[in-house]
């Protein structure tokens, strides 16, 4: 498979009181063309920092290593090159659709902007924006195109955010916790929508999440991060069936099940990590017993 996104030896630091603080430590990650890769881990593990580094969205961050998108090296690239890949090379869906949208701008103009700034006429951008909203399931898209974000529900706002991310037809879609603020039914709708759009357009997808139930039904491959490092990566079926790293076992073992005995304490991630100091060959029975089935 052709590698669309290649991250190698990525290190990200932020200014500290006395010296820079490194929060991502030598991450390696590949998103092949047309594949959906989930980047998982607890809050603070470095998932979002890694993803945002692709588009270099944090001006205070110092990025070292290599990030290649479609063969173009982005670390150390001129600002003009990085700006050029935002939207057309890689689109980004943020986790909170309400704060991702400008509340005083009509949603239609926000959808059109990625095209207009690339020289597409406003008329054509509007037509393409309306057609895309209609494709994404917004009823009466032409009339709603001039509404404001507060006039949309959470699920509809997320569809607007997805439209902004993909209207310039990027090769890579980065979805950073895209369903966190949504209820379960709307979560399923948004994920199905992302799945369909990715397959139709042949996009690579990097999904950032802490929800392994979502990963099981969406991703092709999984990369697990802890404390700013990658601890395990594998195809999704392989990882759920036989997780190798204690931390991965802990994440799977901590998932509650409907058939669990409510009187039995859930296994915590710490139970696994504290028990196994190094990766070993013990069977993955705890994950199979307590984890989610795909």
TrEMBL record:
Membrane topology: Peripheral membrane protein
Pfam families the record matches: ABC_tran (PF00005), oligo_HPY (PF08352)
Domain of life: Bacteria
Keywords associated with the record: ATP-binding, Cell membrane, Membrane, Nucleotide-binding, Transport
Keyword match DNA damage: no
InterPro entries: AAA+_ATPase, ABC_Ni/Peptide_Import, ABC_transporter-like_ATP-bd, ABC_transporter-like_CS, Oligopep_ABC_C, P-loop_NTPase
PROSITE patterns named among the record's database cross-references: ABC_TRANSPORTER_1, ABC_TRANSPORTER_2
Location in the cell: Cell membrane
Annotated ranges, domain ABC transporter: 5-252
One GO molecular-function entry: ATP binding
Main location: membrane
Keyword ATP-binding applies: yes
Family per similarity comment: Belongs to the ABC transporter superfamily.
Protein name from the UniProt record: ABC transporter ATP-binding protein
Lineage: Bacteria, Bacillati, Actinomycetota, Actinomycetes, Micrococcales
């Amino acid at each position: 498979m052709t590698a669309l996104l290649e991250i190698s030896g990525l290190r990200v630091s932020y200014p500290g009181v006395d010296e820079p603080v490194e929060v991502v430590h030598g991450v390696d990650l590949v998103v092949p063309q047309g594949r959906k890769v989930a980047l998982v881990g607890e809050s603070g593990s470095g998932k979002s920092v890694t993803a945002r580094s692709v588009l270099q969205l944090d001006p205070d961050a110092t990025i070292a290593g290599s990030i290649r998108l479609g063969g173009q090296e982005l670390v150390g690239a001129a600002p003009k090159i990085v700006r050029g890949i935002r939207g057309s090379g890689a689109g980004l869906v943020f986790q909170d659709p309400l704060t991702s949208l400008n509340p005083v701008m009509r949603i239609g103009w926000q959808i059109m902007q990625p095209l207009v700034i690339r020289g597409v006429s406003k008329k054509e951008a509007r037509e393409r924006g309306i057609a895309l909203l209609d494709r994404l399931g917004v009823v009466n898209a032409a009339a709603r195109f001039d509404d404001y974000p507060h006039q949309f529900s959470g699920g509809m706002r997320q569809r607007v955010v997805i439209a902004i991310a993909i209207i310039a037809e990027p090769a890579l879609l980065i979805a950073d916790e895209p369903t966190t603020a949504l209820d379960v039914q709307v979560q399923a709708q948004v994920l199905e929508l992302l799945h369909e759009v990715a397959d139709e357009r042949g996009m690579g997808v990097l999904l950032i999440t802490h929800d392994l139930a979502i990963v099981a039904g969406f991703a092709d491959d999984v990369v697990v991060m802890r404390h700013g490092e990658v601890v395990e990566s594998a195809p999704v079926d392989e990882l759920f069936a036989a997780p190798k790293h204690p931390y991965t076992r802990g994440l799977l073992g901590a998932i509650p099940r409907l058939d669990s005995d409510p009187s039995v304490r859930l296994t915590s991630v710490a139970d696994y990590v504290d028990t196994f100091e190094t990766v070993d060959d013990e069977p993955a029975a705890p994950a199979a017993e307590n984890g989610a089935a795909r």
